[in-house]
Amino acid sequence: MTTVTNKSFFLSSFYRVKANDLVLFSILLLGIVGTAMAHQKRVGGMTGVKSFQDADAGISAEDRTQIEGFLKKVRGEAEEAAGRKFASLKPLEYATQLVNGINYFIKASTGDGKYVFLRLYKPFQGEITFNKLQDDKTEADHLTYF
To answer: What angle do CA 99, 144, 51 make, to 5 degrees?
Structure first.
């Protein structure tokens, strides 16, 4: 009889410890997920749209130069996809999406009163590539996932 009681006590203590570990693990996991969401670095989620016209958008000079360089590299492919030549290709807004690399969503003015949305992809190790274009956009259109 004593053996059964000790065994029962051991099992209840064992499960109590496991339950406490599970609670602590859950709290830790929620903290990690919450932090990632706060910094908008979660895999698959698109960051907030940043405007090149907004001085408070937090776009660094390095980011500006990088986005402008990306557009310069893919301009030919973008013009081919749109079926027309652009007078210019000036970035107005952008957002990113962390995948197995980074998707860049860019709203750009083509210099002729028209606008395009571009999706570019940059692997962690490699060059930027053109992925997709949406033409016939207006200045009022909001940049979203496409």
So the answer is: 95
